[in-house]
Amino acid sequence: MNVITDALCPFCGCLCDDITVVVEDNKIIEAKHACMLGSAKILGHCRLGGNNIETHHTIKEPMTRVDKNSNFKEVSYDEAINEAAEILAKSKRPLLYGWASASCEVHKKGLLLAEELGAIIDNTASVCHGPTGLATHEKGSPSATLGQIKNRADVIVFWGCNPVQAHPRHMGRYSSFARGFFSEKGRKGRKIIVLDVRKTDTAKMADEYVEIQQGSDYLVISALRAILSGHADVVPASVGGVLKDQLVKVVETLKTAKFGAIFFGMGLTQSKSRYKNIDNAVSLTFDLNSFTKFVITPMRGHYNVTGFNQVCTWETGFTTAVDFSRGLPYYNPGETAANDVLNRNEVDAAMVIAADAAAHFPANSVRRLAKMPLVQIDPHWSATTEIANVVIPTAICGIEVEGTAYRMDGVSLRLRKMIEPTHLTDEEVLERITQRVKELRGE
Amino acid sequence: MELLIKNGAVYDPVNGIAGDRADISIKDGKIVEKVSSGASVIDAGGRLVMAGGVDAHSHIAGAKVNLGRLMRPEDSRIGLKSRTKITRVYSGYTVPNVFAMGYRYAQMGYTTVFEAAQAIMKARHTHEELEEIPIIDKGALTLFGSNWPTMDYVREKNLDKLAAYVAWGLLASRGFGVKVVNPGGGEMWGFGKNVTSLDDVVPNFDVTPAQIIVSLMKANEMLRLPHSVHLHCNNLGKPGNYKTTLASMELAKQIKPAKDRQVLHVTHLTFNAWGGTNWGDFESKADEIANYLNNSDNVTTDMGQLIFGSATTMTADGPVQYANAKLLHAKWGNGDVELEDASGVVPIFYAKQISIHAIMWAIGLELALLTKDPYKVLLTTDHPNGGPFVNYPEVIALLMSNKKRQEEIKTLHEAVHKRTKIPGIERELDFNDIAIMTRAGPAKVLGLLDTKGHLGVGADADVAIYDIKPDQIDPSVEYAKIKSAFQSAAYTIKGGEVVVKDGQITATPMGRTFWVDATVPEEQTEIMMKDIRMKFKNYYSINLANYMVQDAYVTHPKVVKAGAIPVKVS
Amino acid sequence: MQTVTIKPRKEIRISVEAENISPDKFAGKTEKEILSMEAWMGNQKTTLGELFSVKVDGSGAAADTKIVMDGDFSRIKRIGEGMTAGLIMIKGNVDMHLGAKMSGGKISVTGNVDSWAGREMKGGELIIEGNAGYYLGAGYRGETCGMRGGKITVLGSALDFVGEHMCGGEIIVKGNTGILPGLSNNGGKIVIEGNTSRPGSEMAKGTIIVNGTVDEMMPVFKVEGTETIDGVTYRKYTGDVIVNGKGVLYVK
Lengths: 443, 570, 252
Known about the structure:
By secondary structure, chain B is of the alpha/beta class. Helices cover 32% and strands 22% of the residues of chain B. Chain B is globular.
């Protein structure tokens, strides 16, 4: 029996680093301190969340098939890698998508392959927190590490996010209930405000719940900013379904905080006005700093979706959705993101790695993927497997392979290897595909 | 592998060579006495030969640099270059990608660059980027000026614990030296406030910036670190701050250096040699600073020269960045790090017709030209705060030619005449001075003079050859040629390998990362660690076991030993 | 006077970047030279000749060069990028970035244009008879200025973010627009004949006139009574108050 302490949980953006894992015969039998979602992943039952327990299985062998209606045939890694390389090398508009559940080391290999192929490379931020990046281009990012919030925050705002369900240990470790140097009283010393379109479990625990009419977040943020800047007079009696009195009360709470933190989720990034909501929320945070200290942090979903954006930014200058087709990195979401090019039916071959595009993309994009040569690299069987031509199973990052991951606040940590892998790693597979692509091109 | 550089006009101030024809022999990455007849030969043909450039203060890697990139796709779309068989893609001007960072430095003949600030908790990120910067040797200075353990030990006047913490912090961050930014201010920014003088008391910690600076200088010398304390002064960005700067320099008088170097390096003076009381009567006080430097031997500085055009300011000085963002109506990045420090990122455009910018442009130059000893003022732009490092050749040309300066002054806001001394300064630096400000000086200030910044036997074989014949050029008049030659080295040789020829990258070896392993008596570390363990248990959001930068992130380390017992830098 | 006539040779699925289609690039060039000019289809370098038939009549400077494009160009991006003079007449639809960064000359399109038409435009004129996509006359991501000068007229409708970060020039949309027109603008004039929603958020300077209905008003404007322009009476608003904006919004 082997006990690993201080291990990282490779599930959500909280990236909890206090997990004690018990290993017996190269099997994890216990994951102490992990939440239900985290322990489900670590214990190997599933990859994508509590709902999918028992439905997601690991893929045993590399597989290929002649066409999408045929059955898969188990093949060697060499054969699968060769076929993947042939598909990608032939493509005029290849798309490399995914990267959420993989380490930064994998991302580096992926970016190299994208450069080599002249591909578009995009990550899952494209369908969750991509708008956060777009807002950062416009307004910046006034943020802080989570410990800063735990130690200081006396006002915490959750906007369009539901940590009780999606980030179960967030409130205990970093926010609502966390105790720190200036926050010894924990929850008792804090005011929690939740803004959402429905009364979530998180909202039920709030001191103040603000119910916003679907799609009106942008208007509400502007109203808060107008009141904060001393222009309450121009704000109508009700904005986005919220009474002005409540908005005035919220502003008073925000500006009299000693240290305030706003956390936001897909309720804000994916509702009407999308990234402009975040843009406006960043401005609200900026404005609040004229009165007190305020920071804003996205509730990133997958444990290392942030890491891809970091690596892609330092290697290319751009955060995701980078088009290398002309050799130079070109970035313009709306034009170069996965769903942009899929929707226009431009992509002629794709590779999906460490994410399940088929489960999370709009139907039209999935239909396109289903019709083109598709390579999947993933430890687990998923909806994407069902539409793939070449399936290459890999070791699970953060469980079977070491590597780097970035927490939702941009703190990087080292993932542990808990058990010995039974499959090639993503890094090895990508290296071999890249090598084979070079050979096919006579380089 | 052997290489002989023949017939160069060599400027090697450390070894007293000033333009003499000399041959440089290289073997196995080092400068040697002589090589065999089988050595490859580069005929410099009377062209200028210097040691590879050394930059002691630049922001090249880490969380705030990457936040700068993320905030500025409009910058990343400048300077794009496709990959070639040996190079990856280039992007960015003020915030280049990791590859362009290494290539562009090498193309200017630079071979060693230090990142000026990393918080320990985010050091892993810094090293991830450093690992991907090609060619150059590098290192990173670690922030200590607002760390809770620092302030606790300063308050307790426990220098042993402080020294043990600094040594451990350098190990944890794989850092090279002690960086102090707006001491105490980083903590106060945690609640949106700031310190306003060296003697303000930081609430809850009961220490003053002056006490933090002095104690860290003492710990630094106790540990015999290669570099001195590297200080970004309090009140940076505020008119009248030259007084704080002078007062900070004055603190260095209390300390005796443990090594042959300064005890305090005060950085990017362009931002803290400011007179006046507001933006209306804002003026340069670089002359006062230069005067101080001329009468003092334990302080060094760097220019932080302003370059007109686009820049991205980035610093651990969180409060000054919020003030900047408000003033400029600009986008604002902020990155507080729990228990350690703050940081901020704000884009800016320096315009010739804005009086403040014109005056700031003058400050860096005045400082360099009014300070007699070039070892005391290093050439930097505080990249990318004053402007991107690719503009060093512009700065060199300005320093070498009064004519160029006068022509530039004609295009600037008239305030440059009334509020600075630059129009009347006639001094023109020579190649020897430039070799000091860009090679010997930074190497000496960093404490790396045994292997960097010169061409003597035993030094690293980092060499730059520029397409200038010193005996046939008048830099005062032919400044355009000077600038273009320094922009694009005829050869850059890194560790004995030709990495640049005619301005083009020819090879991309992986450089090394310098970090300092300072020895402290074990029991001292153990006592200190009790406090650290308590801080992790109660306050940090990660576990101690996951805090230190692992070896996997420093694959080509160059460990410099230091510690209470004198150990030779190897 | 030089006239260059361009027709597509085949149906195009993967979008083509063809910034070489511009009077500045074609001026004084022969048919052969134009046919061999570079274009990119996905990651493949190709030539204009591979994709289009090209006919050249006469020769002249950019200002005297007229490009006539006839056919479906809905997968051809960056036409007229950076042009300083001359004329492009397109009978058909075009893809993204039409006339981006143009500073002079005129482009007319009989069909629809995709997003970012007139991006960072400095001068000249863009006339679109069909509909426009997102970000008409807007900027590149992260830039503080979108359109700085010139004039864009859309006879149909436009999608979201018309004139985002606009610093000068004029945009007229005869139909409706999507949400947030004139977002963060700092100058210039936007006229929307049809309906829109959330106009003028964060505007610091500039004018927006809406002749149709505003679905949702931003709660950031001062009501300044009414004003009559060219015989039409408008409700006048100023703002955005949050940024101490001096922008003016007229709603019929």
